[in-house]
Amino acid sequence: MKNAFFDIDTQIDFLFPAGSLYVPGAERLIPALERLNHFAGDHAIPLVSSMCAHAEDDPEFREWPAHCVVGTVGQFKPPELLLEKRVTLSVAPGACAIEGAQQILFEKNQLDITTSPNFRPLLEKLAADRYVVYGVVTEYCVRFAALALLESGMPVSLVTDAIQTLDAAASAKTLREFTERGGQLATVAEICV
To answer: How many CA atoms does the CB half-sphere of 53 hold within 13 Å?
Structure first.
C-alpha cells in the first residue's frame, strides 16, 4: 500500500506562543510531528507539508490576524519538522516537479488546501492508496485537507495525538464528521510502526 502523509500548517506562527496566530498548546505536538515527518522520510513515504504563504495585505487578514507572511520567520516550519530533500510548490499554477523530494512544502494562501491549483495535480502524481493527516488547526485547515482527501475514495487516517484545536466543540464536530464520512482515527504509535 502506497501511503502519503499530509502535515498541515505546522508553522512557527501557529506552533509557538510568540507566533502571530498561536494555537494554545500546539508546541506540545512538536515531538509527535517530528516523529511522523521523520518516519515518512525514513520509509520513503511522500510527505506533503502545507504552508500558509500570505502577502502582507492578504484578504484573509480581514477575518484573521496577519500570519505566515511570505519570508517572515513565522511562515517557516521549525527545523526539526524539515527533511533533507525537499521541494517547494508555490501557489502559482504550474508543474508539480516533486521527483526525488522526501518533503513537498506545499504553499497555499487560503484555509482550504484544495483552492491551490496544484492540489489535484499533486494527488495524481502521488497516486497514494492511503493518506495520513495531522497538524493544525483541527476544525479549519486540517478539516479541509482530511475531507478533501476522503473525496479521493482512498482511506484517510487522522492522527488524533498530532492535531490541535482552538475550540474543543468544533474539534469534536470535525472528528465526528470525518468518521461519519469513512475516515479513520489513529495515533502516532499506530502510524509509526
So the answer is: 16
